[in-house]
Amino acid sequence: MIVSAEVDGMIYGAQSLKEKRAVLRRVQSRIQNEFNVSVSEIEFQDVWQRTRLGIVTISYDYKKAEQTIQKVLHFIDSFPEFERTDTVVERL
């Protein structure tokens, strides 16, 4: 089973693309180190404070894949510099 999430977020403290990318690099690497998922910025690459992350996991068990995505979303919420504004979860 494949479960994906598109996460819109705001990085209010970023005053440049360089600062935004530093925050995103840290968030992405922590997610990848903690969970067995793929994560990438999929939209708004040239906007200072806005981003959209794509997160995907694959598992033999739908329930396990769904739980993994939910854990990742909860983990994202633990970053004070990243505010999750909208999330779309898709099951394939």
UniProtKB/TrEMBL annotation:
Entry-linked SUPFAM superfamilies: Hypothetical protein TT1725
InterPro entries, A to Z: DUF503, TT1725-like_sf
Highest rank taxon of the organism: Bacteria
UniProt xrefs under Pfam families: DUF503
Span of the signal peptide: none
The protein's name: DUF503 domain-containing protein
Lineage of the species this protein comes from: Bacteria, Bacillati, Bacillota, Bacilli, Bacillales
